[in-house]
């Protein structure tokens, strides 16, 4: 799914919330494709943070919360990076439905400790 928004790129940081409904039995495969992407993107310019979540009620439902310094940089430079391509190409076969992508403008962040 292409990322599009009415937010103004370059203004401020941007939060991306991605929801993914994985086909039952494909969770390990999904995580195997996603993990190297998360590991690589933490070293990218403009990357602020990412937190992977799993629903306690549905083990096939995942959510990724990402914060980036600039939407334009994310869309034009980061998403097309080579390390993301195997993951992106596999999604149509692994997911039960198209992933959801929502773009938010962070207003405040409070963190006591790292999430493990």
Integer tally of domains? 1
Q: Which percent band covers the strand fraction?
A: 25-35%
| H/I helix tally | 3
Briefly note the CATH topology name.
Alpha-Beta Plaits
List the strand order in the largest sheet: 2-3-1-4
Number-wise, the strands total 4
Distance between the termini: 29 Å
**Tell me, what is the CATH class?**
Alpha Beta
Helix residue percentage: 25-40%
Main beta sheet? 4 strands, antiparallel
Q: What class would the helix/strand composition place it in?
A: alpha+beta
What's the alpha carbon Rg, rounded to whole Å?
A: 14 Å
What is the 3D shape?
Answer: globular
Low-pLDDT segments? 1-10
**What order do the SSEs take from the amino end to the carboxyl end, as H and E?**
EHEEHHE
Q: Which architecture would the CATH scheme give at its second level? A: 2-Layer Sandwich
- What's the overall average pLDDT, rounded? 89
Organism: Inquilinus limosus
Protein name: Antibiotic biosynthesis monooxygenase
InterPro entries: ABM_dom (IPR007138), AI-2_Isomerase_LsrG (IPR050744), Dimeric_a/b-barrel (IPR011008)
GO molecular function, one term: monooxygenase activity
């Amino acid at each position: 799914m292409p990322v599009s928004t009415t937010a103004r790129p370059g203004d401020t940081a941007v939060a991306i919330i991605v929801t993914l409904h994985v086909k039952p039995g494909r969770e390990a495969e999904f995580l195997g494709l996603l993990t190297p992407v998360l590991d690589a993107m933490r070293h990218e310019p403009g990357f602020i943070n990412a937190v992977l979540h799993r629903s306690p009620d549905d083990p096939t439902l995942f959510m990724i919360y990402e914060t980036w310094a600039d939407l334009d940089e994310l869309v034009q430079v980061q998403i097309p990076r080579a390390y993301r391509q195997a993951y992106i190409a596999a999604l149509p076969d692994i997911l039960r439905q198209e992933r959801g992508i929502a773009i938010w403008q962070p207003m405040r962040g409070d963190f006591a400790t790292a999430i493990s």
